[in-house]
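S.,

Sequence below, as promised.
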Amino acid sequence: MASRDNAQVEITPEVLLKAYACGIFPMAENADDPALYWIEPEKRGIIPLDTFHVPSRLARTVRTTPFTVVCDRDFPAVIAGCSAPGPKRARTWINARIRQLYGALFEIGHCHTVEVYDGTALVGGLYGVSLGRAFFGESMFHLARDASKIALVHLVARLRAGGYRLLDTQYLTDHLKMFGTTEISRARYQRELAKAMRDEADPAAFAVTLSGAQALHAAVLADERLR
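The prediction came back faster than expected:
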């Protein structure tokens, strides 16, 4: 289900959060279109946090990578990376309104980034919305091999540490299948979302500094919370 808003209708961060709590999210047709579509897919992609899977080759990469991974350092750079065309992505849905809205959510603590650096260069990352005990993944990018996958492993480590119970990927893609992503009906998604909205996760998990080995352990092996 999709409905298009009028380009003149003001969508505030508060309205956006209410939409997420109802299972709806916005997208633009392309970066040059000022309007947004409200989307509520019939099938929803989610990554079950208790069965997150990391392929063995990627696990070695996460454990030994020289990259540095941090959170919430440079939101504008991350969304710019996510919106930039690439070899497999000639167009993007991230328009000026998306940048402004999610930047506002970042300022009030409801949007987080995971950023992967090679020295001082940002080579990959992701961003998404945090609400209740749900995290809604929005977009990711990479300029170096496996950088976005490394970011996802670090994200899951922090979600598990913070007591999140729902990781929404919006859609099921071939790229996400390797991590155990599954597709559920709209009705089931609404039930899982309602459970996740009952209380709050701990966003302080995004402030924790982790090595690759620590992130891998927290994401796929350990049940205990990070301290």
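Confidence is low (pLDDT under 50) at residues 222-227.

Coffee later?
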